[in-house]
Amino acid sequence: MPTYKSYLCCLGGGQRHWVLPRPGPGMKAAGILALIGCLATVTEPKIYTRCKLAKIFARAGLDNYQGFSLGNWICMAYYESHYNTTVETVLEDGSTDYGIFQINSYSWCRRTKLQEKSHCHVACSALLTDDLTDAIICAKKIVKETEGMNYWQGWKKHCEGKDMSEWKKGCEVS
Q: Is the confidence at residue 82, as pLDDT, over 90?
């Protein structure tokens, strides 16, 4: 009776399962390649602290951008993604919201190279990294070209019209 060795592998979203390769002479090499492939696809989420994000946002010129204080940006990012850069939310219409600002794939970023609508001219996958440059540029474009921060439901529900000074308190940003 053949013996099977199992190898830990992973699926998207960090889910893990066991792969049972077929026995044979190349089994060891196949197992190692499978393991390397799985490890290469694992993305660790980057979850920023409120103050680290405040500093990044301030350096990127978000404080008072289009009249919205730094507190508004920090509050919005909290209620959209809880400061997690790898959040993807699939919506009922089939589109997906991506990253720390939950930017939608329907109009703002492209999921495929052939997608025509991409007002930010950025791949959606670029909005899922811990380098927030593309996400910030796109968020600025959204605020400038739409109705301000009304694009984000998290901001409308939890931040609009509220005192935003607490969001940057203790963060050593001006």
A: yes
Q: What is the DSSP letter of 3?
A: -
| Residues labelled as active-site residues | 80, 97
What is the helix (H) or strand (E) element at residue 130, kind and residue range? none
Q: What is the DSSP annotation of 50-89?
A: HHHHHHHHHHTT-TTBTTB-HHHHHHHHHHHHTTBTT-EE
Cα distances (Å, whole numbers) of residue 10 to 17, 30, 127, 141: 6, 16, 22, 36
Q: What CA–CA distance (Å, rounded) separates 44 from 14?
A: 8
Pick the closest to residue 120 from 140, 102, 100, 90 (CA basis): 140
Half-sphere exposure of 105 (CA within 13 A, CB side): 24
Percent of the chain with pLDDT over 90: 67
Name the CA dihedral angle for 106, 64, 61, 57, rounded to a multiple of 10 degrees: -70
CA distance 149 to 134: 17
Q: pLDDT value at position 111?
A: 85
Helix 50-59 with 70-81: angle, nearest 10 deg? 130
pLDDT at 35 over 90: no
